[in-house]
Amino acid sequence: MTSSSLPERAERRCHHLLNPFHSAHYFSPDLGRELGAVGVEHPSAAYFAVRAAAMGPVGPGVVTATFFNFRHELVARHVPAVWETASPAVVLAARERVVDATLRRLLGEEVIGSKEVAEAAELALRATEACVRTARPLYAAHADLPVPERPHLALWHAATLLREHRGDGHLTVLLGAGLDPVEALVSHTATGKGMSPKWMLGTRGWTRADWEAARGRLQERGLVDGEGELTQAGVALREEIETATDRLDRAPYEHLGAAGVERLTELLGGIVPTMLGAGAFPEGMIGKK
Q1: Is 3 a residue whose pLDDT tops 60?
Q2: What pLDDT digit, counting tens, does each position of 40-85 carry?
Q3: Rounded Cα–Cα distance for residues 264 and 18 (Å)
Q4: pLDDT digit string, tens, across residues 221-235
C-alpha cells in the first residue's frame, strides 16, 4: 500500500465539497436559459453538450464511454445532433456564462469577490498541477481549456479538473469491481448517498426494468438483499470502491500538502453550504426512494 502524508480520507472530504461546487450549474435555471439562447433546448442535450464540449464535436460513443452511466440510446438521441445546433466553442462560452450567473445568484457578490474565494482558487489550481492526463479523457479535455481570470470562475475551473480527474479514475475502479453502469447506480443509491431511483430513471435513460434487472444481478452476487438494501458484502464493496478511488486520486492532494488540503476544505466548507442553502440542488434528489 502506498504511504500518504495526508490524513485518512482527506482527498475524499475535499472532493465532497468540490463536486457540488462544480456540479451546481447542471441544475441551474441559467443552464436552460443560456443553452436555449444558442438553440439547445432539451435538458439532456444541454447537459451532454456542456460536459462534453471540451472534447470537441464528439459522437455518441465517446459521450457514452466517458459519462459511463447514461443509456447509449439516450445519448445518441442528442449527440452528435447538438453540435449542428451549437458548436463546442459556442457551448463552452455559454457554459461560462451559466457558471458565472449561477455562482453569483447562489453566493452573492460579496462572497464572489471575497479573498476566501480567491485563496480557494489558488489552492485548487495548485492541486491540479499534479493531475495526470493518462487514461483520464474528461479531465484531459478540460485541462486543455484556459484558466478563467476571475477568481470565482478559476475556482470553478479547478474544481472541474479535480472532479473529472477523480471521476475518470472512479470509472476504472467500477469496471475493476465488475459493476456495469446500472449496477453502479443501483449500488450507489443503496448507500443512501446517491441520487434516488426516480431521479436516475428520469435523467439517465434507463427503464424500471433495467433497474430491477441490475438489482437482481447484484442480489445474485450477494451485494444487496431482497429489499435492495446493501448486504455486509455490498457495504464492503462500496467502501473498497471509494478507497481505491481515493488512491487513484491522491496525487493532486499530496502535491497540495496536508495543510493546503485542510485549508482548501475549510474554505469550501464556508462556501458550499451557502450554495446548498440557496437551493443549488432540487429537493428529493438524493435518497433511496
Answers
A1: no
A2: 999 999 999 999 999 999 999 999 999 999 999 999 999 999 999 9
A3: 9
A4: 999 999 999 999 999
Amino acid making up residue 277: G
User: Coil, helix or strand for 227?
Assistant: coil
Which residues are bridge partners to 224 per DSSP? 230
| Amino acid at the residue 77 | R
Contact indicator for 253, 134 with CB cutoff of 8 Å: no
CB atoms under 10 Å from CB of 268, counted, come to 25
- Please give the biggest Cα pair distance in the chain: 54
Please report which confidence band the pLDDT of residue 1 belongs to, taking 50, 70 and 90 as the band edges: very low
Whether residue 233 contacts residue 223, with contact meaning beta carbons closer than 8 Å, is answered with yes
**DSSP output for the chain:** ----SSPTTHHHHHHHHHHHHHHGGGG-HHHHHHHHHTT--SHHHHHHHHHHGGG-S--HHHHHHHH-SS-HHHHHHHTTHHHHHS-HHHHHHHHHHHHHHHHHHHH-HHHHTSHHHHHHHHHHHHHHTT---TT-HHHHHHHTSPPPSSHHHHHHHHHHHHHHHHHHHHHHHHHHTT--HHHHHHHHHTTTSSB-HHHHHHHS---HHHHHHHHHHHHHTTSB-TTS-B-HHHHHHHHHHHHHHHHHTHHHHHHH-HHHHHHHHHHHHHHHHHHHHTT-S-TT-BS--
Q: What is the pTM of this model?
A: 0.96
Contact 5, 250 (CB under 8 A): no
CB 130, CB 252: distance < 8 Å = yes
Bridge partners of 286?
195
pLDDT over threshold 80, residue 199: yes
- How does 155-179 read in b/e, with b if 16+ C-beta sit within 10 Å? bbbbbbbbbbbbbbbbbebbeebeb
Contact call for residues 69 and 133 (beta carbons, < 8 A): no
